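Q: Convert this sequence to structure tokens.
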Amino acid sequence: MGEIAEYFRREKYINRRLSLLVLGGTILLVPLTVAAGHGRVSARTLEATIVAYIAFVAFAVILIVRRAHARFPKSNLPDNSPLDDATRGKLRRRIWLLQFFLAVYALGLLNTLVHIRSSAWLVTAIGAAINLLIQIVLIKAIRRLKRKLNPAGATTAAVGTASRSE
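A:
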């Protein structure tokens, strides 16, 4: 099976399990938060539950990603097969979605920079650093998907770069 098909299978596996984590968190935390708002549950209980859920999610995400990579190992063979129209469409939609999120995070960073003087600088700086890291990851993902979308252009660019260095 090709590298791109494996990528989509691995992603589907991960997305389904992460969706279950989100659903479970919603089912657990929303009623608990409402109960805390009405005074039926103490704030400390809510805090402890949130911290425990975050620790559980961190552990579960690591476990899900490890199992996905074990179940769908990355192929060592290069995937030079031409892409069909459906796969090209999937890759284009994914690139568009990642570009949209990149724009949202860029606007968030601009908002952070505008409000940096009126808020706690350490917390704002940490938020800005995390925002930048997420943007870097999104840019790398967009570049990787664009290379998969246009392997012929990537190959000629690599050949042109190699010939210039000689």
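The helical segments are 3-37, 43-71, 85-114, 121-149, 151-165.
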